[in-house]
């Protein structure tokens, strides 16, 4: 199977997901994974689709019907995690890491945390953020959940220490789960 990653952006309205799902299904594709959201009146999403190699171009062409309704960009997917070359020792595989971040909202939280992760070669797989009113404190509260992969060569103690120092500096709480 061929993997395609679709990015979708457009004005939010009912039926957008159904329109994409119909095209994918009608052209032999299988909807594998997705993250979809409405943000400030816009619909945004990313969808992983698998399709038989001989039908991939047909599916790509069919998705162009959505022009005007959604902006669809199609990217080739990477090999599945189980498709690594033989001889890749388990000890060299990245380790999962989950971070929970919470604190008073202010500019730069994502920039600072992602910089520390990037400096250590940590790859963010999934990140969700939100701000909400903090009624008890009279301001906005920032919350984030980050799912990432840490290279085997990275010292987790050093990474944890750096994230804890940063959390203190930018006044947020960071909880790590390795």
Molecular structure report:
- It is built from 4 helices and 8 strands.
- By secondary structure, it is an alpha+beta fold.
- The longest helix is centred in the C-terminal third of the chain and has 15 residues.
Tell me the layout of helices and strands.
Layout lengths: L1 E10 L4 H11 L3 E10 L2 E10 L4 H8 L7 E6 L18 E10 L4 H11 L3 E12 L4 E12 L5 H15 L1 E6 L1
Antiparallel strand pairs: 1-3, 1-4, 2-3, 5-7, 5-8, 6-7
Helix pairs in contact: 3-4
Shape: flat
What distance lies between the first and last C-alpha atoms, to the nearest angstrom? 32 Å
Helical element count? 4
The CATH level-2 architecture of the largest domain is identified as 2-Layer Sandwich
Uncertain segments of ≥5 residues (pLDDT<50)?
A: none
Helix content: 25-40%
User: Total number of β-strand segments?
Assistant: 8
* CATH C-level name of the largest domain: Alpha Beta
Main β-sheet description = 4 strands, antiparallel
Quick summary of this structure?
The protein folds into 2 domains: 2-78, 2-Layer Sandwich (Alpha-Beta Plaits); 93-177, ACT domain (Alpha-Beta Plaits, 2-Layer Sandwich), CATH 3.30.70.
Task: Quickly list its features.
single chain, alpha+beta, Alpha-Beta Plaits, four-stranded antiparallel beta sheet, 4 helices
